[in-house]
Amino acid sequence: MTALPASVPHPGAVELRCWALDSYKGLRRLRAELREVLMEVMGVPLGMVVPRGDVVDRMAVVTTELATNALRHGRAPTVVRLLQVEDRLVVDVADHDVEAEPRFDPDRPPGRGGLGLVLARTFATEVGWYRREGTKHVWASFLDDGGRFGAAGATG
Hints:
With 156 residues, the protein is an alpha+beta fold. Helix content is 28%, strand content 28%. It is built from three helices and seven strands, in the order E-E-H-H-E-E-E-H-E-E. Strands 2-3-4-7-6 form a five-stranded antiparallel sheet. Helix 1 packs antiparallel against helix 2 and helix 2 packs antiparallel against helix 3. The longest helix has 19 residues, at 55-73.
């Protein structure tokens, strides 16, 4: 098992959106609303389809995986925040189990579960974690290679 690096992500980031989840039932809504916010931040017209593998897909997968891990291994509520700093978006997922450190097994075979953090490390630019005021946070940042994220706080 390998530990994630402990570090706080981009202190100057602006919060674009926040979701609180008490159960797995909220994951579908989280994913749909995240996609809407990301399309807005990128200036993509409503209803337009983005190419597979685009940053929207990668962020949706990573966010869902991190939120699922927090619900499965942490203590509720799970809080998911979408942050922006310059040309970078950050997903920060917090739960209330400050004892457990996030670890992943890079050699785990597919189909055996436990690949959430491996996917995060594969799809995100950076991944890390930290503890603050009774919560454990796991975060992933994404650079927009198409330059569509705009200035921080563009969506208010």
